[in-house]
Specification:
disordered N terminus; five-stranded parallel sheet; about 60% helix; about 5% strand; three-stranded antiparallel sheet; single chain; alpha/beta; about 1000 residues
Length: about 1000
Amino acid sequence: MDGVPKGVPRVPEQRRPDSTPEPAETTGPAGPAEAAALRFGVLGPVRAWRGDEPVSTGSPQQRALLAALLLREGRTATAAELIDALWGEEPPSQALAAVRTYASRLRKVLDPGGEARRPGGTATAVLVSESGGYAVRDLALGALDLTVAQDLATEAEKARSAGDLCHARTTLRRALALWDGETLAGVPGPYAEAQRVRLEEWRLQLVESRLDMDLEQGRHAEAVSELTALTAAHPLRERLRELLMLALYRSGRQAEALAVYADTRRLLADELGVDPRPGLSELQQRILQADPSLAEPSSPAPEPAAVPVRPAQLPATVPDFTGRSAFVRELGDILSSAEGRVMAVSALAGIGGVGKTTLAVHVAHQARTAFPDGQLYVDLQGAGARAAEPETVLGSFLRALGTADSAIPDSLEERAALFRSVLAGRRVLVLLDNARDAAQVRPLLPGTDGCAALVTSRVRMVDLAGAHLIDLDVMSPDEALALFTKIVGEERVASERKAALDVVAACGFLPLAIRIAASRLAARRTWTVSVLAAKLADERRRLDELQAGDLAVKATFELGYGQLEPAQARAFRLLGLADGPDISLTAAAAVLDLPAEDTEDLLESLVDTSLLESAAPGRYRFHDLVRLYARACAERDELPPSERGAALSRLLDFYLASAAGVYAIERPGDRLVDHLEPTSYPGLRFDDRHAAQDWLYAEAMSLLACARQSAGQPESLPRAIDMLWAAHDLSESGANSREYEATAGTLVGAARSHGLARAEARALMTLVNVHHVSGRFERAEEEAERAILLAQESDDLLPVCWARNARGIIALYQNRHTDGEEHLSRAIEHFRALGDRPGEAAALCNLSRIHLATGRTQSAVALAQQGIDVYDGLGNSMRGANARYALGLALTQSGELGKAADRLREALEVFRDSRQRLWEGMSLFRLAEVDLAARRAARAAANAEMALTVLRGIGGEWRRGNVLTVLGRALSGIGQTGRAQVCWQEAAGIYEELGSPEAAEVRALLSPVQAA
């Protein structure tokens, strides 16, 4: 475009001043610290890796120090500069000591060997002290993601200058792919904040440059959707608006291009009181004049040949892999014979801890060269309560093989078929670890010539047709001793060989047991092997039947458990009681009834003993067998026994109180939180709505697991149901909808079986919301009707209010307008009786839609506006978005399309910000209706397409039929009658299957097309 710079933007800071030392070239064998190169990431959370293994970067302030040093790119930062970077103008009194402590901790984790050696014997370190300050030096080439991004941007700039747009565009995409969320995410301090702003600006400049090249190559149609999203995210960024105008114009959408200019001019005037910059105004004039120079390139540059995606997902093999030579050869021979065979499948079976995964990963690494097109890996979690769903695994595999999300079908059968098709002609190895049974495995098998699958499971898969079955037994004595020696060290074992043999025999030659015992001994330099052997010889520390399945694992765990301090042992026992994939630090503190700081110390000490795993910063999990053992210990050792129930009760209280806090901050003034079951243990307090949402979605699976676990306890069930009600955002997010529905069904059944009418009514309300969101209106109506009866019996008015409200909106969907008005009018009365203004506003907005459906447009507008006034007065932005949605519908029907679009866009912004996928998709759908009414068919098509994408997997088929109908109208409006017919045919099929009256309307739309 004229007047627009064509170069690739550089990061707005000089990268390598002359004073920065360049990394010295090294030769010869690597020292201990060089054996695996360090890598660092700042374009996202501040992280470090040694090879492929993550390295802990410590507390937020410690990460802030590391970030400050990395971003100086080798230059020394004085202590004063670092203090200013971390705390600004108000440092703590011990700031200097804290900086030194952080630096010392970082040096320990970054250079655990103490020092590395250069050829001349000079010691070097990653983090060095110099002139009273610190610096990070001697990093390998490409060790910092920011440096890699800068180099790629420079390469792209050179390619663009040389006229190679394909290479420049591809290189820029690689640079942008290095970002992993917000730059320096979670890092405190003024320096980090300034760097975040700087690097985000640079990222946006790179995006603009890449989009500019997209347009130069004629990819304007593809760019429209991305530019639409970017301009929504950055509404005042005129360069993005300019690119969107050009992309729309070249896509034949001149009116939309001019509308972008009008929107921009209005926005700049309202927000900043300025006019658009000259370049944007000039582009508008050129569009009005149909300037020929704006036409798309006559011959777009060809897309470079696609490079097949070669996934390499195998976990790292253990460095101390020992023995199993016969199995290694046997499996290696089978895998090497995969070429020319339809499929090679080997299934390893054995008790937990026997080394199935270790062997499979080791063999897979050795066989990689026989599968040049990639290796896929998944833990199927077959030993857990909720094994991985095959359709979820297939979705992950297809993405790893380069399949776009939009091309991945929904059903298991279609995904499995696509997976086999994608693998056709490729040689790929699939490692399916920890499988539950053959039924879980079958859809995940390649089934094509040249591919192979390795499966591990605790059960023998005799019903897996064609599989080569291997039963993996414990190690031989020689192999067990060799593994023990590798972990503990030759020197300590050589002098006590007899004691070492006693140790591995006491462990039953089980690899997991040997590894745990040896690791404990290696971590205690004051112990001898004989001390460990004596401890194992005590029958109180091991079970008599070490060879009997899980008992072998329990005996090994008993060794670790017996060495714990009392506080550690209590934490181990109680944490094992909680269901869920993992547990957060704050939730664990509730279980243990301890401050978070003390809880973290205990949990980290358990991580050191390998009895607990650190799943992520601030999150912990048990191996599934260790969890079972911990529960057995709790049943045996926890005194008084009532403490087990008290621990789970505290966890439930914590989740309920925290979920109520999330609900309250998202919905100010809502009375639901005043009617929840009381709690004895406090939850988290949230000052920020986004932090509250982050907590809810991060804890979703653990929270739902806690609810299900409480189903069997009548005294806990009412709190679990209220927790589910307070967390009902999870049912509308799409990410957790299926788990939420299953949990709701479980709690309804439990309340019914225990005869808890009040609890059942509330549980039914969670199920009503699930059915409503999923478009199952008949079931929602049935459950709401029963909820009203039970709640009235229990004198619990709140479920009556919301059930009436739900029945009103369901009646609207089913064209039962008189019934709907009656339900909503009574809901308004009930909400007023409770003093629940937000609830009253919700019913008013729904009543607005009834009035709208019955032709009372003006009263519909007035009712929706009443709802907005209530919500705005309470500061309830999320519910206010629902009211704006209702007002947008009424304004659309009244012909005030501009105002309707404004209200719907306001609602859309809030729904997106609140992660409400259902309402985000529905707002896009309603915007498409507005665009149709305003004769903006192209924009209507774009919004309808986006609505289909957002509503995928949520909202139900009826809503999907509605969107398809509008999309068909929009496509017909832009002359794409073939696509329109396909949309209408699919919509008609949906309506007919549901028995919906809309089927006749759509068939009428199809008739002229079919006649033509």
